[in-house]
Design a protein that fits this description.
This protein is α/β, with parallel strands linked by helices and 224 residues long. The chain has two domains: 1-37; 77-220, Aromatic compound dioxygenase (Protocatechuate 3,4-Dioxygenase, subunit A, Sandwich). Helices cover 18% and strands 24% of the residues. The chain has two helices and eleven strands, in the order H-E-E-E-E-E-E-E-E-H-E-E-E. The strands form three sheets. A five-stranded mixed sheet has the order 3-2-7-8-9, with no helix packed on it. Strands 1, 4, 10 and 11 form a four-stranded mixed sheet that branches. The protein binds fe (ii) ion.
Length: 224
């Protein structure tokens, strides 16, 4: 009788443990699947010395036509578009995106920029944007020029971003594919997954100017 009880308990215990282990296995599988579904956070980059110092940011999605300018900025017109997402792929709505960049000659409109390249009277190179309900953002600008950043150092063309969600802030820089200074740029090459920072210039969709270019840059925050 005792052996029956023990055997019965053992069998029940085994069944219970199997159920627990099975459940744990399912839970583990679910977590693994979720982890595989996670996006990669966009690599962070330094703020740099040319974060805009003006008191009021331009709230515009077209940096090529600043207020009070007489004409359009010189350079390759570029439409930058993308989404701000959390690691789990959820759109980050109402995120604030600050962008700033050099003009097509590689010069920032910033008192600390000693580059002798000319300023562009039709380009201020900074704006603040927001994301919509789907996390989308977009702006029109010109492709920035490369610029000297010390002896024998040239920074490849890039656009600076500071993205602020509800719980997370990311400072980063977006670069362009096939630029000659990409391979030697210390900042770009310090990123663990630098390919996430490099965009390809694409032909524009039919509704945009035919000689412009399109760049798609998704930005992934930890939690949004
Ligand atoms: Fe820069």
């Amino acid at each position: 009788m005792a052996s029956y009880c023990i055997g019965d308990l053992s069998r029940r215990e085994i069944l219970r443990m199997a159920a627990v282990l099975g459940g744990a296995g399912m839970l583990f599988s679910a977590k693994l699947a979720a982890a595989e579904a996670l996006l990669r956070r966009t690599p962070a980059q330094i703020l740099g010395p040319f974060y805009p110092v003006m008191k009021v940011w331009a709230k515009t999605a077209d940096l090529t036509r600043p207020r009070d300018a007489s004409g359009r900025a010189s350079g390759q017109v570029l439409h930058v578009t993308g989404r701000v997402l959390s690691l789990s792929g959820e759109p980050v709505r109402n995120a604030q995106i600050e962008v700033w960049q050099a003009n097509s000659h590689g010069r920032y409109r910033h008192p600390s920029d000693s580059n002798p390249a000319p300023l562009d009277p039709n380009f201020d190179g900074a704006a603040v944007l927001g994301t919509d309900a789907e996390g989308r953002y977009g702006f029109t600008t010109i492709k920035p020029g490369a610029y000297p950043a010390g002896p024998n150092t040239v920074r490849p063309p890039h656009i600076h971003f500071q993205v602020t969600g509800r719980e997370d802030r990311l400072v980063t820089q977006m670069y362009f594919e096939n630029e000659p200074y990409n391979d030697t740029d210390r900042l770009l090459n310090s990123a663990e997954r630098k390919e996430l920072l490099v965009v390809r210039l694409l032909p524009p969709p039919p509704e945009l100017e035919p000689d412009s270019k399109l760049a798609m840059f998704d930005i992934v925050l930890f939690r949004g």
